Amino acid sequence: MLAGRYLRSRRKETFISVIAGFSFLGIMLGVATLIIVMAVMNGFRSELLTKILGINGHVLVQPIDSRLDDFDAVTARLEGLDGVKFAMPFVEGQAMVSGPAADLGALFRGVRKADLDKLPLVSQNIQAGTLEGFDEGQGIAVGSRLARSLGVALGDPIRVITPRGSITPMGMTPRVKAYPVTAIFEIGMSEYDGSIVFMPFNEAQLYFNMEGEATGVEVYAEDPDSVGGIRQAVEEGAGRPTYVTDWRQRNMTFFSALEVERNVMFLILTLIVLVAALNIISGMTMLVKDKGRDIAVLRTMGASRGAVMRIFVITGASIGTFGTLAGVALGTVVCLNIESIRQGISWLTRTELFSPELYFLSKLPAEMDSMETLAVVGMALSLSFLATLYPAWRAARLDPVDALRYE
To answer: Where, by residue number, does the polypeptide cross the bilayer (predicted)?
Structure first.
């Protein structure tokens, strides 16, 4: 009851209540900022991981010192291993693509229709056209951003040019061939939507001079995080000399940088909550000084030092507790509507806040982690509680005689 009365503003105590209000806002905004930023960082990592692992194999098997002409047998052996979801051979090559609007470089991946159907990130995100008859025809599937950059639509031809063409008496001549666009997909990651082209497996073998062989075999694990446990089995199951790498090796620098940035952001944003906790100390110190007469009266009526200390601990901790709860509520609301908020701010400012060219993703993701949110709440409550101890201790140590001497 006493703690609640001290928090309520009266005419003579308006300034103290203003400080308490700013402390409340500081903790609320600090907690909300921490939750929002960490949720965006988690969502960013999760989306990138989903996109990268959804289109690239978890384990890549490539031949050493010989052509991979027995790819069917290798694929069958790898698919029989425990922990392996499926495996698919592929032909990969780089070429220039030419359209009415631009000439760009692209990464071509020759795959079979049955294997492409196993990649839901591609097969379930076809914006235009269809993958039906993909193996039988000579059409190609291109990303939406690449199609826009080239200025082509469904059914339009794209010229594909590679310097490694036919060998003639005059040397190697470039190979130029036109392919119609039979499907346009959008993965949601600008790097893939703007650079990858899927081509029928047999056609890719012919175009890149790899008749009867494959570039490698991609293995998709049941659990991508457990690739370390199946890597040895994959090396042995290939049944031939191979060079095996997993997704963690190929993207180690990228995800390590994300993890470092995430931890540093947490430490930096924690300072916001710390500053708000310091405001609690200043506000509580002023409150103790202002309530010296009340403390002396309570002590003379029989209140113990512990009782006085509890009053002021509850007063300061209440600011931190309600500020933390309000921050969690605000952060949750923002995280649930982060993309709508981004679009609204972009519309108001006439700027693009989350450019896909810079951040790879076409939407701003946010993924709240329950344990992380609990850690933020625990940290905020701990700082708020610690901030009340010194002012409460000063109140408990106040001598009633000194406080009432000049009353």
So the answer is: 15-41, 264-288, 308-336, 373-393
The tokens for 312 are 């002021």
Report the distance separating Cα 402 and Cα 407, nearest Å: 10
Which has the closest alpha carbon to 220: 388, 53, 401?
A: 53
CA 177 to chain centre: 39
Q: Please tell me the predicted confidence (pLDDT) of residue 197.
A: 92
Residues 6+ apart with CB under 8 A from 338: 36, 39, 40, 364, 365, 366
Q: What is the pLDDT of residues 56-102, one digit of tens each?
A: 888 888 888 788 888 888 888 888 888 888 899 999 999 999 988 88
pTM: 0.68
What does the pLDDT look like over 240-265, one tens digit per residue? 888 888 888 887 777 787 778 878 88
Spacing of C-alpha 180 from chain mean position: 36
The percent helix, strand, coil of the chain (3-state, each to 5) is 55, 20, 25
Is the Cβ–Cβ distance between 346 and 352 less than 8 Å? yes
